[in-house]
Amino acid sequence: ESSHHLPAPKDVRVYSYNFQSSLRWSPVEVNRGLVLYTVHFKTGAFSQWDEMNCTHISQTECSFPWSLKERRWTIVLRVRAELGQVTSDWVETDPFVAERNTTIGPPQVKNVIENSDSLLISVTPPFGSEAGEFLQYHVSYWENATRPTVK
Length: 151
Hints:
By secondary structure, the protein is mainly beta. It is 3% helix and 41% strand. The protein has one helix and twelve strands. InterPro entries: FN3_dom, FN3_sf, Ig-like_fold, Type-II_Cytokine-TF_Rcpt.
């Protein structure tokens, strides 16, 4: 590590589960002082970098603010390490679109009512839906000791 430059953060990735998104990275190790980090973003519509809610932070994670919760927006983020006046190069992410790049978790089963000829399953979605969205669920069931029957 030179006296004029810090190593850049590594393993910079967007993690998104049920549309709760954050940028995470590995810490930059130095022999002296506390390394801080700053995160910027830009959208597909504007090429200008803007500050996020993470400027001069010591954590290695930055949650997306509400202003970036649009699921169809293309977002690019960048992070750099800082130690006093010394900074690293910026590290940019690949373009992120929540609608394509988030992991969707399972719904929560609230209630199951079984009759001789039917099964009524009540579920809660894993996230709040937006106007125009239609969630579909795939349900598998089987009797004990038999192979699954998909319905």
